Amino acid sequence: xxxxxxxxxxxxxxAPLFIFGGSGIVxxxxxxxxxxANGPDxxxxxxxxxxxxxxxxxxxxxxxWSPNKDFWQDRKDRAEQLKRQA
Length: 86
What we know:
Elements: H1 2-10, H2 15-38, H3 69-85
């Protein structure tokens, strides 16, 4: 770390390189941590259900964004009709 500070003091034009490069590295690590903590495909908790993706019902949309929202609403309506009939 002291070497980087000395390098920036002797050549101040390198400061933006270290600032933006360092913030990119920190942002990348933070994104990986976010995906590990909140991602539906990542299983870290070994005591919970072994396959959490099996909890998703056929009428539930697991995507972040879906251009065809009517499709999922129709599937949900059909699932509710089948529940009422049974």
